[in-house]
Design a protein that fits this description.
It is built from nine helices and ten strands. The structure holds 5'-O-[(R)-(carboxyoxy)(hydroxy)phosphoryl]adenosine and zinc ion.
Length: about 325
């Protein structure tokens, strides 16, 4: 029997989940809207809002799961990577909660948890599989051999795919986080209206910084030539940028699958909520004979259910940490 309380606070979502014998029975997420006004997450504000949210979110999760504090067997938390001030709130709360109730602590790597979100619901992938993990801070192709045995076989050398979405949105004067808004406008536009260069990077790595600069110049030049260009062509620009990012992501994934001879392919992280990526992956899967695993929308962006399921597998493996554990803004995979 195990009831695990899990806490996620790595960026701008305060989330708490309960996992009861491997089943998620609560997943409460408090989004922080304060950052919309600033075009990006302000770390100082994020940690303050986590402080305000953490207790009510824990209480709501206990209510939703119909359990009390004395039913909890272990406390899992995101140790990193993430914003240090944000992580500190979740880690300190987890340690205090565990100390007060004399419970074991489980430290979870946020990027592992995005991948293990595939074990929340059926169908679950079999090991080994490849996972394209695409979020606001990371773009990785991971060879997943087991719950605790994962190897990064390709990653971005500079910006993440989520940053490419968010920075393009900023150039288009759309509010933060721009990824979902680009997705929304892209649905109404022509993905072949404009062409952007595909970065020529060797092996399985990615790069988005040159791509981002190409978009910056494209928007600047077009707007100079024809003031009002952005507004007039917003849907087509969003559709074309999204199409290019998705092609860049999937071309390397195709290469990785060939190189490693693996046909079980998953996507994870905030950008895996992108409808263009989800559709293009399904099409590619048919062409390549892949079995694909695409998480439910609620488990793509940051959530504590993924921390709870990762914590559950660590609990089964007796993988606990002591009260001397500290958050890690950068964390070895
Ligand atoms: O995994 P996540 O919630 O947080 C991090 O760990 O970074 O990912 C957030 C990222 C942001 O860059 C956001 O714009 C992007 O995921 N995102 C999307 C979509 N939904 C979220 N990007 C493109 N299309 C979407 N539908
Ligand atoms: Zn994340």
């Amino acid at each position: 029997m195990s009831v695990i309380l899990a806490i996620e606070s790595s960026c701008d979502e305060t989330s708490v989940a309960i996992c009861n014998n491997g089943k998620i029975t609560a997943n409460v997420i408090a989004n922080q809207t304060i950052h919309e006004n600033y075009g990006g997450v302000i770390p100082e504000l994020a940690s303050r809002v986590h402080q305000q949210n953490i207790v009510p979110v824990v209480q709501q999760a206990l209510i939703d799961a119909k359990v009390s504090k004395k039913d909890i067997n272990a406390v899992a938390f995101t140790r990193g990577p993430g914003l240090l001030g944000s992580l500190l709130v979740g880690v300190s709360f987890a340690k205090s909660f565990a100390l007060a109730l004399d419970l074991p602590l489980i430290a979870v790597n946020h990027m592992h948890a995005h991948i293990l979100a595939h074990f929340i619901e059926d169908p679950k992938p079999d090991f080994p599989f490849l996972c394209l993990t695409v979020s606001g801070g990371h773009t990785q192709i991971v060879l997943v051999r087991d719950y605790a045995d994962m190897e990064i076989i390709g990653e971005t050398l500079d910006d993440a795919a989520g940053e490419a979405f968010d920075k393009t949105a900023k150039l288009l004067q759309l509010p933060y986080p721009g990824g979902p808004l680009i997705d929304k406008h892209a649905k109404l536009g022509n993905p072949h209206a404009f062409k952007f260069p595909e970065p020529q990077i060797k092996g399985l790595d990615y790069s988005f910084s040159g791509f981002k600069t190409a978009i910056l110049y494209f928007i600047r030049d077009k707007e100079k030539e024809n003031p009002g260009f952005i507004n007039e062509h917003l849907n087509d620009i969003c559709a074309s940028v999204q199409y290019s990012i998705v092609q860049i992501l999937l071309n390397k994934l195709k290469k990785a699958a060939k190189t490693h001879g693996i046909k079980d392919i998953a996507i994870a992280g905030g950008v895996s909520a992108n409808s263009g990526l989800r559709e293009a992956l399904q099409m590619l899967a048919k062409e390549q004979g892949w079995n694909v695993f695409i998480p439910a929308f609620e488990y793509c962006t940051d959530n504590a259910a993924m921390i709870a399921i990762a914590g559950y597998h660590k609990y089964l493996a007796n993988d606990f940490v002591g009260q001397d554990i500290a958050p890690a803004a950068r964390m070895i995979f």
